Amino acid sequence: FGLLRGSGGPRIRTERLALAFGNHFFSPNIIYSSSAGLVPLGSLEHLRSAGFRGPVIHNQNGLYFPAWFKGECAKKNAELANFSALSDYVIFQSDFCRRAFLELIPQGKLPSHEVLLNPSPDLSGGNIPVWNGPPQLLVAGNLGQGGAHVLLPALRMFARAGKRLGASLLVLGNPPSDLMENTEIRQALGELEAAGINERLRFAPYDLASFRSLLHGRPISLHLRYKDACPNAVPEKLSLGIPHIFSRSGGTPELVGKAGMGIPVEESWDRLISVSAVALENAVDSVLARYEELSNQARLEFTTRLTFESYVRRHEEIFRRALEKSL
Q1: Helical H runs in 244-290?
Q2: Which one, 28, 48, 299, 304, has least CB within 10 Å?
Q3: What is the pLDDT of residue 3?
């Protein structure tokens, strides 16, 4: 198993796989690559010419489009298409990733493939929380590039409804300084102060080893990132029985399943679309009215579809089949 790790969420996934299978970079019998850490085609061709006859498995966890990537999207997607064509098998981390491949690379050659949803270890440790008390609204994930479209509707909704709900807002993931200097973000923070609830807003690092200790009351995850392909943050929180409110775009709806409410957004590859703060407030009210049911459903979605153990088992089956075919 020779692994190229990638970055961000894909890096976390592949490092977890490396712990399960080992990472024999100089003597692999399988090459496993992700679209966030692509093995250069020249290196793959060199390995083939040097006698490597093992299978190449490609994990396709996203594509390039202008809303998120300001470089040459067509060129980068062509690289992904070329690598996929040379692979023996492709794993899409969500059906959104598969559909995006077909739409953004219409001439791309797609080999044998399947959709295998993004998993998580069980963060409950077998100690399933029973959530009670005032609502705690969570915003988690990468707030770097384009972070304003995620944070702004959450802040605006909280300014409108935080006092009425008796809620707190926890932002997990330290936002960059330029985001906090954004004019609209500063205005929304001023609205919190005017409402007298700015002390209920907290920022903290997204550290899986400690973030559970920050949770209290009835947590609800607000996953508002537009066209998030296969976010790790969703199954992580589902494992703790946390319902979700989300942008109905990308791969997030597939992961959440019936454990929350999606907010409709318009379709675009060119712009980041925020959810409406009003729609977000209405969704929070609806989730709170069904909190126990949706919390139980969150745990059920995780245990039946998104455990890391089942992800590893399926990889074992894929690897075994691919090796048998390569003999």
Answers
A1: 252-256, 277-289
A2: 304
A3: 47
- Residues 6 or more apart in contact with residue 133 via CB below 8 angstroms: 216, 217, 218
Q: Letter for the amino acid at 11?
A: R
Distances (CA, A) of 260 to 23, 220, 279, 292: 37, 9, 14, 11
**Contacts with 207 (C-beta within 8 Å, 6 or more apart), sequence order:** none
Q: List, edge to edge, every strand of the sheet that includes 201-204.
A: 201-204, 168-172, 135-140, 218-223, 244-247, 260-263
Which tokens hold the place of 177?
A: 């300084």
| 3-state SS, residue 291 | helix
In this structure, which amino acid lies at residue 130? V
Average of per-residue pLDDT across 239-248: 97
CA proximity to 318, closest of 2, 30, 4, 102: 30
Alpha-helical regions (H) of 201-257: 233-238, 252-256
Torsion of CA 315, 318, 320, 324, to 10 degrees: -160
Helix (H) or strand (E) holding 301: helix 291-305
Q: What angle separates helix 8-21 from helix 308-326, to the nearest 10 degrees?
A: 70
Chain centre to alpha carbon of residue 137:
18
pTM check: above 0.85? yes
Provide the 10 A C-beta neighbour count for residue 186: 11
Asked if 248 and 263 count as a contact pair (C-beta separation under 8 A), the reply is yes
Q: Are 101 and 110 a contacting pair, CB within 8 Å? A: yes
Percent of the chain with pLDDT over 70: 94
Straight-line distance from the first to the last Cα atom of the chain, in angstroms, rounded to the nearest whole number: 16
